[in-house]
Amino acid sequence: MSTVRRPDHRSAHRPARAAHANGLRHVLTHLITPLLMCIGMGLAYLGAFAHPAPHHLPVAVVGSGRSAQLLAQSINDKAGGDLEVRTVSDRAAAVDRLKHQDIFGAYVIPAEGAQGAKGAKGAADAVDASGAKGAPGGAGRSGAAGASSGSSGSTTSRGSAGRDGVGGAARPGKPVPELLVATAGSDTSATVVQKVFTPIAAQQGAPLKVTDVAPTAEDDPTGQGVFFLLVAISIGSYASVAVIGGAGAVLPLRLRTALAIGTSFVVGLIGTAFAGPVFHLVDHGLGGLWGMAWLYSAGVLLIGTGLHTFLKRWTTLGVMTLFVMLNFTSSGGIFRPEMQNGFFAALHSFWNGAGFVEGVRSHVYFGGYGLAGHVWTLVGWLVAGLVVIGVAALAEKRRRTAEAEAAAHAVAVAAAAVAATVPEPARIGRSAGGAEPGGGHGSAHAATALEEEREEELEEAVGV
């Protein structure tokens, strides 16, 4: 009597289960990168933008009399460090300081509105009621749109009456308080300053006249187009890093460096086209803007290309940390450092995104004042990129030398083993017939693994 063995279905499914487990492990490993990006972006953006508040925001009271000094001192006392109020002798000096970005607002007391110590105290009480500390919340809600704030008996006009900004109707011939701002420096800072001084004008029984001494381009009313231009140039730059590092990994580093520099020229031209003929973010100075865009993009591409030698598939996360998470948040494009916490305010002083944004503002709107310092910031990052490339070149040279030595040692060991175990006639026949069967299996496997790694890097770059 014979028995028929049933097929073991569990054995048939084992290879499929093993393949699924390996695939799941592969996916979970690669999910680490986007999850880290999520955490990093949340910490960076919410840490920088969630709770904007002035920290020693410099403003001025225009006047040389006792009433101006008392008003400035009273506002300083009530602000508790949020504002840094100083006095300026006359309107012309205030305009000059605004255009040098030494201050971000100047309150001009009307000639008939000097009320002495009593009037200064009442104005300071108005500041306490409206709140220098309360202004940032309003700026955060309305900042980009440049909202106006009003209180009883006072109106502001930067959002409603245009750039000359006479708000409300005053009696003919009666002087009214005037607030000088420079929206090209920061629309959100100008909004905060306006929220602070509007109640002071109301306390003096007059509407507030708001004058913009450094307006932005007509097609960029908030002045934040430069920030979004930075975003476009940054994405074009760091996404190109993944392509040059992944698809171009077989190329010598000098060719990858040349590709990086050439790509930065193209990215700079694209950014200049966006800023000028496409969206009209700026109406002059396109040559200087292209130069800064090229410097910025070249620094990003060179640093990223050099880092790829060490980070490999983690390069995308590395460049996003440097040029998105820490860069956009400290650039000053949305909130200036005086409106941020100490960490991002400190980064603003030397990070490359801040160098580009402030450099473009200085070049286009402020007559080039301070431009040299911002250009040197961009040059410094370009030099840093060249240094990283140099270090990467040394590392790759040592790696190639070590691999060549290891390969030579392996060949020598294999030859010695063959010589010790294979008879002489067989060795002669093998030499005449060519290489051993399967001799190229190891190199083919290594090439396949390298190609898979490059494809993974490119997939991550496209996903980002």
TrEMBL record:
<protein>
    <recommendedName>
        <fullName>DUF3533 domain-containing protein</fullName>
    </recommendedName>
</protein>
<keyword id="KW-0472">Membrane</keyword>
<feature type="transmembrane region" description="Helical">
    <location>
        <begin position="375"/>
        <end position="395"/>
    </location>
</feature>
<feature type="region of interest" description="Disordered">
    <location>
        <begin position="133"/>
        <end position="173"/>
    </location>
</feature>
<keyword id="KW-0812">Transmembrane</keyword>
<feature type="transmembrane region" description="Helical">
    <location>
        <begin position="226"/>
        <end position="251"/>
    </location>
</feature>
<feature type="transmembrane region" description="Helical">
    <location>
        <begin position="314"/>
        <end position="335"/>
    </location>
</feature>
<dbReference type="GO" id="GO:0016020">
    <property type="term" value="C:membrane"/>
</dbReference>
<feature type="compositionally biased region" description="Acidic residues">
    <location>
        <begin position="450"/>
        <end position="464"/>
    </location>
</feature>
<feature type="transmembrane region" description="Helical">
    <location>
        <begin position="258"/>
        <end position="282"/>
    </location>
</feature>
<feature type="compositionally biased region" description="Low complexity">
    <location>
        <begin position="144"/>
        <end position="160"/>
    </location>
</feature>
<feature type="transmembrane region" description="Helical">
    <location>
        <begin position="288"/>
        <end position="307"/>
    </location>
</feature>
<feature type="compositionally biased region" description="Gly residues">
    <location>
        <begin position="134"/>
        <end position="143"/>
    </location>
</feature>
<feature type="compositionally biased region" description="Gly residues">
    <location>
        <begin position="431"/>
        <end position="442"/>
    </location>
</feature>
<feature type="region of interest" description="Disordered">
    <location>
        <begin position="428"/>
        <end position="464"/>
    </location>
</feature>
<keyword id="KW-1133">Transmembrane helix</keyword>
<dbReference type="InterPro" id="IPR051328">
    <property type="entry name" value="T7SS_ABC-Transporter"/>
</dbReference>
<feature type="transmembrane region" description="Helical">
    <location>
        <begin position="27"/>
        <end position="48"/>
    </location>
</feature>
